Amino acid sequence: MEEPLGLSTLAVHAAWAQTPANPPATMPFYPSAAWAFRDLDEVDAVYEGRVKGAVYARNGTPNRWALERLLAGLHGGEAALATASGMAALAALFLAHLRPGGRVVASRDLYGTTWGLLGDLARFGVEAVGVDATDLEAVAAHLRPGSLLLVETLSNPRLRVADLPALAALARERGALLVVDNTFATPYHARPLAQGADLVVESLTKFLSGHHLVLLGGLVGRKDLVEGPLGVAVRAGLVPDPWACWLGAEGAKTLAVRLERASATALRLARFLETHPKVGAVHYPGLPSHPDHATARRVLARGFGAMLAFELPPEREAVNRFLRALRHIRLVLSLGGTETTLSHPATSSHRSLPPSEREALGLHPGFLRLSVGLEDPEDLLEELEEALKAV
Ligand SMILES: Cc1ncc(COP(=O)(O)O)c(C=O)c1O
């Protein structure tokens, strides 16, 4: 007869369940930070890649690999890396692909924190040159072999549209790599790799996961271009935890239905705002008045996205009155959730820019960015119309 086990041993081991022979209906979740081996032969087999096994959560987890398969699939890329945030994807990419004396030619109209990160690289001898990415001659003038050309498909916050095929041709001609931050467009509206980009970055924190529940990022491209960032991400711990990967993959299941609805609503709201007497410029690439409307028709698929921006008078108090008069649309300094939300770039995403650069981008105190969600479009129209009376 076996010796009865002690209370503590039972507490540690008794719950171990058999894995069912049939699979669960949803993706399994593996929270373990470390994995066990039967013997040293199994350790060798896993390290040598003969068996797909997990070792330690920083090196890789089944939920991260699942998310990477999803990202590679959605973008039609050879390889993908999932990261702890969109910024972590950019950091891994920069650390792997830049050297002292290297150059990043970047759109001036990028997410402010991306510019902040490029500023950090100056200490390592990396030069960041800001350009108007819609001016192909200006871009060409700064590119040289080995440069990274960094643009956003739909820029934050002015919704300028990058001419991806033209920029890809320029980058190829000059021996540079085209890196596209596709966060606002998502693979629903744009697949930059198919348009010639070398690497695509996503903040899955936004529309791709879609529910304001996770901080998560990703990088997709050719295997030889993703391998370097993967190594850096594993060594530096820029990788996401399994729960974030699981939530991100679940959220992405509804990407197409969410964006189909939200983009259609965004177009209606943009048309409404454009005719409102209290609203100045409206920035939405689906409007014929937008400077990149023709580019948007070529570069974007299935509509023009769920982000738009509009300008109220450049007075802080007018904006405050408008915000206080809204009922459901709240000031949330992110984007891409199921709720329609507003943000104010001058005091949030672009707060760290020097005032002169903010001004040059036109980000005055009345500039607002709208992330369109899944509410009934009529309710949103009515709410905006009502709140504009307070401006
Ligand atoms: C265009 C764009 N890229 C990257 C990021 C960074 O993503 P994360 O917050 O997941 O690091 C953001 C965040 O707002 C963004 O808007």
Q: How would you describe this protein?
A:
It is a single chain. Helices cover 39% and strands 13% of the residues. It is an alpha/beta fold and 391 residues long. β2 (103-107), α5 (112-120) and β3 (127-131) form a beta-alpha-beta unit. α3 (62-75) packs parallel to α10 (242-252). It is globular, with a radius of gyration of 23 Å. The chain has two domains: 40-252, Aspartate Aminotransferase, domain 2 (3-Layer(aba) Sandwich), CATH 3.40.640; 255-388, Aspartate Aminotransferase, domain 1 (Alpha-Beta Complex). The chain has 15 helices and twelve strands. The protein has a seven-stranded mixed beta sheet, with helices on both faces. It has a five-stranded mixed beta sheet with strand order 8-9-12-11-10, with helices on one face. Residues 85-87, 111, 152, 156, 181, 183-184, 203, 205, 215, 217 line the site of pyridoxal-5'-phosphate. Pyridoxal-5'-phosphate binds next to α4.
- The share of residues in helices is 25-40%
Number of helices in the DSSP assignment: 15
How many structural domains?
A: 2
Tell me the overall shape.
globular
Helical/strand content category? alpha/beta
- From the structure provided, what is the oligomeric state, counting identical versus distinct chains? single chain
Which value, in Å, is the CA radius of gyration? 23 Å
Biggest β-sheet strands, sense, barrel: 7 strands, mixed
Number of strands: 12
H and E order: HHHEHEHEHEHEHEEHHHEHEHEEHEH
| Residue share in β-strands | 5-15%
CATH superfamily of the largest domain: Type I PLP-dependent aspartate aminotransferase-like (Major domain)
